[in-house]
Amino acid sequence: MVTQNWLYDATLYIYALSLLFYFSDFVDRNRRAKQIGTGLLIFVWIMQTVFLVHRILSHLDMTSFTLFEYLFIFSWLLVTISLVISRFFSIEFIVFFVNVVGFSVLALNLFGLGSGASLARWEIVKQLLYVHISLMICAYAVFTIGAIFSGMYLFLHSKLKSKRWTAAVRRLPSLELTGRYMSLCTLIGTPLLTLSLAVAITSILTEARYELLYDWKVLTSLLAWLLYIGTFLQRRWIDVPVWKTARWNLFSFTILILSLVMNKASSFHSWS
Q: pTM of this prediction?
């Protein structure tokens, strides 16, 4: 676990899961994902409230409050305000952005801001790196499936364009369905990659190992992340053809694999 307090840990993880669903709605309007994200956010608010009441009861003298408590209250207020906005106002994207800030404050509170941190700084960094690796493995798995669908889409597109109906073409899913699965994989993988890189970079900054920011593995991972973000921009605001998005996906995946191959030449994992 990231801290010794299971309630704080659970709140943090569920908060991250809620943001993944909100990110899905942010990128490609998805009412179901937004509803799930809101439900998880309500659960986060309940858990935060329980944690907050416990901290207040154990610090009845408000002068003994540390910066940890104040930042936690700030995060709790952001969640509260975002839920009110979601319930009574129709303002697109505001809930997502408010909770990105709220989650960041909650996560940063792990790094000993005040006397509230439960673990030594290096122990926190080490545990967060476990989270980074877990998220990155999940991202690799999802992006691999997305790359396969991208290849299938390009294959189908070329065969249909040339009107060459083969047995393989008949056995594959439709072009529309293949494109939808490809987009879904990118939609799931990108926030996983985003959270993984955010955790890794935060760990580097916490230990003041700034030279690792120029490590080739870190740079190629960031490049792959930017390319996948570009995929969303293409599909949502530029409306490029799906076959071009499939090519972009394959190129992004190639850069991501290059980052994996660079493990031996990188000092990042040897440091961690």
A: 0.59
Domain residue ranges in the chain: 6-118, 122-271
Question: Whole-angstrom Cα distance, residue 146 to residue 140?
Answer: 10
C-alpha–C-alpha distance, residues 249 and 243, integer Å: 10
Residue 229 token pair: 């973000």
**Type of residue at 22:** Y
Distance CA 213, CA 84 (A): 39
Q: How buried is 233 (Cβ within 10 angstroms: 0-12 exposed, 13-18 middle, 19+ buried)?
A: exposed
The single residue listed with the structure tokens 């394959």 is 250
Q: What is the DSSP string of 8-20?
A: HHHHHHHHHHHHH
> Phi/psi of residue 266, each to 5°?
-100, 145
Cα distance between the two ends of the chain:
17
What span, in angstroms and rounded, lies between the C-alpha atoms of 117 and 67? Answer: 10
Over residues 227-241, the pLDDT tens digits come to: 888 887 776 677 778
DSSP secondary structure code for residue 239 in this structure: -
| Phi/psi of residue 173, nearest 5 degrees | -65, 165
Question: If we measure between CA atoms, which residue out of 165, 130, 152, 143 comes closest to residue 269?
Answer: 130
- Look at the block and give the residue holding tokens 């122990």: 123
> Which two structure tokens, joined as six digits, stand for 68?
């940890």
Nearest to 185 by CA among 104, 256, 112: 256
The tens digit of pLDDT for each residue in 239-254 reads 778 888 889 899 998 9
Return the number of other C-beta atoms located less than 10 Å from residue 146's C-beta: 27
The mean of the pLDDT values for the chain is: 75
